[in-house]
Structure formats: structure tokens, C-alpha cells
């Protein structure tokens, strides 16, 4: 509460949450983002709090993630019911066709005219049933594609197209449960706040997308995700954490080689860089949290050492 009062922030659940994180989890992305603003004695403003909260996934604390889960589940239930309806409709059509064939067979008298009439009806009903079944199959295919797209959207970051926190957490749990060693690298764009302040959020978004693309291309085929805000994560199925640090360093070099210009004035923005921290996890799920913390601490040391570098740490 003293923190909120000193920064003239109202004691809302969101502000209280950020203040708690800033004071009690100093190595977290949210705490580091707050520290970057307040380090030199500046007061953090409400709009800056809102931006940090949004960019670092804080909205999930208040249930937006749960609502996303509910939305996906609702779509799944809707599509399951639709498939059930289509299957039932196709079964009814097939049953009716079988009854009609049976009735026509009972009425068959053997003369050619009657046989031709029966055969014509059989062909007509067969074509109608086929048309209905084809339409049902196509709709089931469309529903399956919609469900797959919804599932993919739920695991993708909207701005960059990279994996989001949901997908990142799922992969880390999967690797831990399989007992696979994993190198975890965290990257944070250097001086990103000054980019937003000077050029605006639209330019900031372009910078984020450029860094995302550079990491994705340089670190392929390894997993790259957006950790939150201007932070990214790279997960490698390997024990070679020093090799992981070298790979991130290569991506850092590739980014520095790119010439980023403002669209409006064609003015070059100068050096774009990121700092990185790398750690190795070899244990179960508990090792994920310890390794993420270690990578984050290494990232903080990289920032404190002058930025634009990658530091690796010990195994967990």
C-alpha cells in the first residue's frame, strides 16, 4: 500500500498485484519492467502500469484466460452437437431409403414398365441420399477445420504468431513429464520503453515482430515463443546450455545486422538488440520454475552488464 501511495496509484486489485510482484518477486518480468521505470526516481503512471500488466500476461490473473478456455470449450460442444445432428440426419435418410426399397420390392410384379419405374425411383432416392451424405461429410470437415483453427489460435500470440504462454507452459510440462533435458533461454529487447516513448506503440509492435522473426529463423528448429511484452523464450531439447547461449548470441548478432527504418521518414532507428539469459533443466516440473528463475536472473545480469549480451547459468 505504501508503494501505491508513493506512486499515487489507486489501490485497485490490478495495481495491488503489480505492487506485490514488484516488491516480492524482483526477478520477474513484471518487476523488472517496473524497475526500469522507477529506478531513477521516476513515478510510475497508471497507463504504464496498464501496459506492463497487459504485455506480461497479467490479465490472466483476473480470469480472461479462463474465459478463453470456456470459449474454446463452448465451440467444441457446439461442433460435437452439430456432428451428432448430421450423423443422426444421415442415419435417418439411410433408414428411410431402406424402407422405401423394401416397399417397392413387395410391389414388384415382374413387368418391364413396373420394373423401370421402381429402378427410376431407386436411382433418384440414391442420388438424394448421396447428396445429403456428401453435404454432411463436407460440413463435418469444415467443423473439424474450425476447431483446429480455434485450437491453434488459443496457442498463438496474436501479434507475432509465435507460441503464447499457454503453449509454452504445455511444452515445458510435457518435456518435464518425459524426463527430457531442456535448455531455456529468455530474451528481452533492450531499451524497448524508449522505442515506445519516442516512436509510439505501432513502431514498438513492428520491432517486436522483427525480433520474433529473427529468433524464429535463427533458432529453428527449436521452439520459440513470446513470453510476454518484449520478452521471448527459446526452448531447446538438449543438455548443451552453452551451445544454447551461443545460438541466442547468433540471433542477437543477426538482429544487430538488420537495418530498421521508420516508414514515415525512412529514418534509421539505429542498433536493435536484446539481452538474454540461459539455463538448463534436467528434473521434473519443479525444475521448470527453478530454471526459468535462473534464466531470468541471468537475463537481469546481462541487462546490468550493459545489455546486448547473453549470459548462461547452472543446471537445475
Give a quick rundown of the structure.
This protein is an alpha+beta fold.
Task: Give the strand content.
Answer: 5-15%
State the distance separating the first and last CA atoms.
35 Å
What is the rounded Rg?
29 Å
Query: What's the CATH superfamily of the largest domain, by name?
Result: Reverse transcriptase/Diguanylate cyclase domain
Coiled coil: 126-160
EC number: 2.7.7.65
Keywords: Coiled coil
Domain GGDEF: 180-315
Textual characterization of the structure:
There is one protein chain. This protein has 316 residues and is of the alpha+beta class. It has 3 domains: 2-55, no CATH class; 66-154; 157-315, Reverse transcriptase/Diguanylate cyclase domain (Alpha-Beta Plaits), CATH 3.30.70. The chain has helices at residues 2-6, 13-24, 29-38, 46-55, 64-107, 112-154, 165-178, 192-199, 201-219, 241-257, 285-304; strands at 182-189, 223-228, 231-236, 274-281, 310-315. Strands 2-3-1-4-5 form a 5-stranded mixed β-sheet, sandwiched between helices. Helix 2 (13-24) packs across helix 3. The longest helix is centred in the N-terminal third of the chain and has 44 residues, at 64-107. Mean pLDDT is 81; it is low at 62-68.
SSE topology sketch:
Layout: H1 2-6, H2 13-24, H3 29-38, H4 46-55, H5 64-107, H6 112-154, H7 165-178, E1 182-189, H8 192-199, H9 201-219, E2 223-228, E3 231-236, H10 241-257, E4 274-281, H11 285-304, E5 310-315
Parallel strand pairs: 4-5
Antiparallel strand pairs: 1-3, 1-4, 2-3
Amino acid at each position: 500500500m505504501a508503494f501505491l501511495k508513493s506512486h499515487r496509484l489507486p489501490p485497485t486489485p490490478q495495481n495491488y498485484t503489480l505492487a506485490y510482484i514488484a516488491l516480492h518477486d524482483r526477478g520477474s518480468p513484471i518487476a523488472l519492467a517496473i524497475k526500469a521505470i522507477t529506478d531513477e526516481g521516476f513515478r510510475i503512471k497508471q497507463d504504464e502500469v496498464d501496459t506492463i500488466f497487459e504485455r506480461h500476461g497479467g490479465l490472466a490473473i483476473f480470469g480472461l484466460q479462463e474465459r478463453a478456455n470456456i470459449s474454446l470449450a463452448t465451440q467444441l460442444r457446439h461442433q460435437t452437437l452439430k456432428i451428432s445432428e448430421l450423423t443422426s440426419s444421415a442415419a435417418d435418410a439411410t433408414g428411410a431409403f431402406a424402407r422405401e426399397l423394401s416397399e417397392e420390392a413387395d410391389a414388384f410384379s415382374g413387368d418391364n414398365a413396373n420394373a423401370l419405374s421402381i429402378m427410376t425411383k431407386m436411382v433418384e432416392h440414391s442420388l438424394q441420399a448421396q447428396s445429403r451424405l456428401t453435404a454432411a461429410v463436407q460440413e463435418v470437415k469444415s467443423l473439424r477445420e474450425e476447431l483446429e483453427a480455434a485450437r491453434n489460435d488459443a496457442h498463438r500470440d496474436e501479434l507475432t504468431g509465435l507460441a503464447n504462454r499457454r503453449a509454452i507452459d504445455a511444452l515445458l510440462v510435457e518435456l518435464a513429464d518425459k524426463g527430457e533435458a531442456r535448455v531455456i533461454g529468455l530474451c528481452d529487447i533492450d531499451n524497448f520503453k524508449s522505442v515506445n516513448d519516442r516512436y509510439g506503440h505501432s513502431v514498438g509492435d513492428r520491432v517486436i515482430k522483427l525480433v520474433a522473426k529473427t529468433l524464429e529463423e535463427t533458432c529453428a528448429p527449436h521452439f520459440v515463443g513470446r513470453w510476454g511484452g518484449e520478452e521471448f523464450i527459446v526452448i531447446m531439447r538438449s543438455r548443451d546450455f552453452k551451445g544454447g547461449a551461443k545460438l541466442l548470441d547468433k540471433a542477437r548478432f543477426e538482429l544487430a545486422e538488420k537495418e530498421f527504418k521508420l516508414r514515415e521518414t525512412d529514418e534509421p532507428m539505429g542498433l536493435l538488440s536484446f539481452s538474454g539469459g540461459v539455463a538448463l533443466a534436467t528434473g521434473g516440473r519443479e525444475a521448470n520454475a527453478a530454471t526459468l528463475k535462473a534464466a531470468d536472473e541471468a537475463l537481469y545480469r546481462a541487462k546490468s552488464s550493459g545489455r546486448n549480451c547473453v549470459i548462461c547459468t547452472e543446471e537445475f
